[in-house]
Write a structure and sequence with these properties.
The chain is α+β, with helices and mostly antiparallel strands. The chain has 11 helices and 14 strands. The model has no long low-confidence stretch (mean pLDDT 94).
Length: 326
């Protein structure tokens, strides 16, 4: 088994590393990595329905999509990610407990009484410390999860806060659960570096024929290519979201206007505003201008600004107006 600790904190590179090893060769893998502040959504989720776009933008949190299912997770440099890639020709024997049991044993070696839950989570005192997801490729399986060590729980809450009632879709929805940090249950306290080393050592020492070599130059180049061509792209992060209809009652001066946007592959295919009596020309122009524009905060704002420029006698707080379209 190949056992690695990633030197990168880039979520796109680390997600690409998982895909590269899953789909190339038959080598089994155990991988640990830390990501810089980011929200990673499941493959079949509607990204915008899962996040607080204003908080994400203000806090410069990266957005990413993984190839496994499940819900959205916030990650930072105090959240340890683990991945197992195994050959599993008999699919009926694949289950989360096979991959989470070694992690549970490693946590117990640190004095932490964690347990597996029915939602494929790991819990301490009935609070979530780990979420897990899986992807099967031919006769190989990727199972990975998070370990909340000492993450910023305020940032976690702020990043994943949104009004889902605005989005009508068939996407997988995240299940919000009470969470806790592992560090608050450890005595004595240790650093994330020590925690990473202890988890790695505990997993590796029980394996035979363990290969601890680092990525080769060839592997790193291939992984960088996957990150750039897939995981960093707008089409994958936003455009892979299932089609949806966004609806919200927005404030326009003293009036309330209902906005309805139909989106497919991240692109606005139809925009309708049930207009107030004033500035109807603005809304007519906006409906036309939003057609074929990505449902993206920057692109929508730029479009609104252009329409305002062509609308006489209109004063509008663009940021506030735009925020109501997400």
């Amino acid at each position: 088994m190949r056992c690695l600790i990633s030197n990168s904190h880039n979520p796109y590179f680390n997600l690409a590393t998982e895909e590269y090893f899953l789909k190339n060769g038959d080598e089994e893998l155990f991988l640990l990595y830390l990501n810089e502040p980011s929200v990673v959504v499941g493959k079949h989720q509607n990204l915008l329905a899962e996040i607080n776009i204003k908080g994400i933008t203000n806090n410069q949190v990266k957005l990413a999509r993984r190839i496994t299912g499940g819900g959205a997770v916030y990650q930072d440099l105090n959240n340890l990610n683990f991945s197992f890639i195994h050959n599993c020709p008999e699919r009926d024997k694949i289950n989360f407990k096979v991959f989470t049991n070694p992690i549970l044993e490693a946590l117990k070696s640190l004095g932490l009484e964690a347990e597996f839950s029915g939602r494929n989570d790991l819990l301490v005192e009935e609070k979530k410390i780990s979420g897990n997801a899986m992807h099967i490729y031919k006769s190989r399986v990727l199972s990975h999860g998070t370990l909340l060590f000492n993450s910023d729980l305020n940032m976690l809450s702020d990043s994943l806060k949104n009004d889902r009632t605005r989005y009508a879709d068939k996407a997988i929805k995240s299940v919000r659960s009470p969470v806790t940090n592992i560090l608050s249950h450890l005595k004595p306290a240790i650093s994330i570096e020590e925690f990473t080393h202890k988890i790695f050592t505990q997993i590796v020492q029980g394996k035979q024929d363990t290969n601890l070599n680092r990525l080769s130059e060839e592997e790193e180049i291939a992984i960088q290519h996957i990150a750039k061509e897939k995981f960093e792209t707008w089409d994958w992060i936003y455009g892979y979201s299932p089609k949806y209809v966004f609806q919200n009652s927005i404030q326009f001066g003293p009036d309330s206007v209902t906005a309805i946007l139909s989106i497919e592959k991240g692109i606005i295919l139809n925009a309708k505003f049930e207009k107030a009596s004033s500035h109807n020309e603005f809304f007519i122009s906006l409906e036309k201008s939003l057609f074929n524009i990505p449902h993206d905060l920057k692109m929508v704002r730029e479009t609104i600004e252009k329409v305002i420029e062509g609308t006489p006698n209109l004063t509008l707080d663009v940021a506030q107006f735009c925020a109501q379209l997400f």
